[in-house]
Amino acid sequence: DKERANNEIPHIESDRLTIKILEPSSAQLVLDYLVKNKKYVESWIPIRSSDYYTIQFQRKKLGNFLELYTSGKEFRFYIFLKNDMTKVIGDLSFFNFVKGAFWSCFMSYAIDKEHSGNGYIAEAVKRGMKYMMTVQNVHRIAASVMPENKRSVKVLERCGFELEGSAKEYLKINGAWRDHNHYAIRNSKWKDQSV
């Protein structure tokens, strides 16, 4: 396992994957991944505008993600097979950071339809969580998932998340308000840095 923190953009490796934050110059890679998986993920995401699927929009979005990373507000990683940096196969985000007495964030993820079922997303989640808990010192990571999204539930369970409760009409997904279950995991090695 390798990771680079300091002033460099995080570049994380696991056994089979490279997980990294991308710069605007990688917009075409991201767009190809999004367009390819548009139908595959539409049941699990909010409705996106047509301009979302343009190179200009993705270039701007990657610039925004880079600014959010620099300010410590969001870590949007893209997932690649370790020996192939020519194709994005998934994404993993840590966002909505609250510090102080809470010190937690939310997490979301997606995987390319052709790479689903190979354990890649669980591998990426475990590696990303390790980075967030050790390098960024996050105490708690939460994720919300629709109960009928069985594959996503399995990913969270495999990664050690526990079901904490449910929320009615929590997010507007694919045009309708949908119930979600809340899962979370805590960092047993969290260090209090306020002293």
Would you kindly provide a written description of the structure presented here, covering whatever features stand out?
- The chain has helices at 27-36, 38-41, 55-70, 120-134, 150-158, and strands at residues 2-4, 11-13, 17-20, 75-81, 90-98, 104-111, 140-145, 162-173, 176-186.
- It has a 9-stranded mixed sheet, with helices on both faces.
- The chain has 5 helices and 9 strands, in the order E-E-E-H-H-H-E-E-E-H-E-H-E-E.
- Helix 1 packs across helix 3 (55-70).
- The two termini are 30 Å apart.
- It is α+β, with helices and mostly antiparallel strands and 195 residues long.
Task: Give the topology, please.
Blueprint: E1 2-4, E2 11-13, E3 17-20, H1 27-36, H2 38-41, H3 55-70, E4 75-81, E5 90-98, E6 104-111, H4 120-134, E7 140-145, H5 150-158, E8 162-173, E9 176-186
Parallel strand pairs: 6-7
Antiparallel strand pairs: 1-2, 2-3, 3-4, 4-5, 5-6, 7-9, 8-9
